[in-house]
Amino acid sequence: MAVPRLICIFILPVCFSAALPHNPAIMKMETFTDLIQELESTLPEWSAKKLAELLLSSTTEPSQPHQHLSDRQAALARDLLSHKAIDLEEMGWQEQGVVLAPDGSNVALRSLLDTVVWGWKADCDGKKLESDKKNVESSEKPRPSQESGSHNMYQVTLPSMLGLHFASFNDSLQVPLYVPDGCWDSISDPKTFQLHGAPSRNDLTLANINGVLDGALLREMIINETQKMSDLLQSYYGGIPARSPYRRQNFQELLGKGELGNEIERAIGCYRKQSKGSGLPDMTEEELKGTAAAAAKQFEQQYLDCPAVMPRCMWGAKPYKGTPTLLNLPLQHVYIHHTYEPSRPCLSLTECSKDMRSMQKFHQEERGWDDIGYSFVVGSDGYLYEGRGWHWVGAHTRGHNSIGYGVSFIGDFTASVPEGPILSLVRDRFLKCAVRSGYISSNYTIQGHRQVVNTSCPGDALFQKISTWENFKES
Fold first, then answer.
1. CB within 8 Å of 278: residues ≥ 6 apart
2. Could you give the angle at the alpha carbon of 194 between the alpha carbons of 111 and 308, nearest 5°?
């Protein structure tokens, strides 16, 4: 029986392998936190950063026994931290070294720990930026990052990922930035993470970027050298609501004006100095500065400014019954709803997913609809949840489903309104991002469900609130 050919991307290089991937670990953040707590019990004096360096160093020489890790711990660390994307041809792309966080997001742990130790900015000193082109033709070359000693460990920063992506292709700034997410084989027992599409050669996957952002924010949370890593992780991911759903907004608060563009420019400069014959197009200093500024702007507008949306696979959606009808984009209208039932706002992935499944079941079985009716649903956990999504006609606002999106807040908002950050998620991020992405027109209108259908939805309190929003249209 023929063994399928695999194509792997190890952060930047590409390699070929004849063996199927094997990853026995349960790829949850809890697995990583448990490992951290084990190490903290045997190394109680070690700081969070020092433990991060220990785990990173354990992956640079996998064949060597490690002084501070048992064989089981070292093997588990390699499973959790060996980040790579693999092309299984007929089966598509899989991403390894990714864990499922309690909030439902996917995080590349290697990027997280790298950033905790080194920070998110470009570094020209000792941490070589590696060419993705240079290793395409060689499947067996060792990574230049595999050097002994924690101070020589390989790190790919956010500016280097963005810089190499945008500098490598002359037309890269003319097309939308594609950052693929994915789905797990199981939410309760995740082992295999299937990407929705091919990653860029410079590893711009959502999990990798989440890892960098989380690492930068966790680094800021380290108050002193004795603070435990496990406490940081539990505080960041485990709260109700958690901090991690707001990683994009909080990372933006770390950025100074023009800082990301300056760092991208610096990263490209570092790369050129350290990687002769890199194959990057020739640019003048002025062109380099312009490319870096444009790359930063595109990343901020298409990623940082946009809300994270939980895909259907993350909340356990059943398949659409029949064949969806496609929308004719861009749309002109957005209709705001509340669910009324469930009446309580959901504050976690578990609660919100349960509510989504309940609504889909009611809509499909009781109402006889093809799917959950809403285009998007807003949880109070900091995430939007994909219903019928950007492209399928919904069943949310009778007579208007083909001309607008239906966005519903989970809860009964007759007498109260969602928390400020949740309202801002829709008003300041979702709507603006939808305009930039071409899903709704720039002169779109917002209306409450009650304005076009005989109903009390979206509740008196919420309706009064949205009536103050820009683009709200009176009946």
1. 131, 133, 134, 271, 272
2. 60
pTM of this prediction exceeds 0.85: yes
The amino acid present at 203, given as its one-letter code, is D
Rounded to whole angstroms, the Cα distance separating 132 from 136 reads: 7
360-412 pLDDT per residue, tens:
999 999 999 999 999 999 999 999 999 999 999 999 999 999 999 999 999 99
3-state helix, strand, coil split of the chain in percent (to 5) is 40, 15, 45
Statement to judge: residues 191 and 43 lie in one domain: yes
Edge-to-edge strands of the sheet including 331-338? 309-310, 384-386, 376-378, 404-409, 331-338, 440-448
In a domain, 35, yes or no: yes
Give the single-character DSSP code of 472.
B
Clarify whether residues 232 and 345 are in a common domain: no
Q: Return the CA Rg of the chain.
A: 23
- DSSP letter string over 231-242? HHHHHHHSSSS-
- How many distinct structural domains can be found in the chain? 2
Token pair 């670990």 is found at: 25
Nearest in space to 309 (alpha carbons), one of 377, 240, 357? 377
CA 462 to CA 321: how far, in whole Å? 32
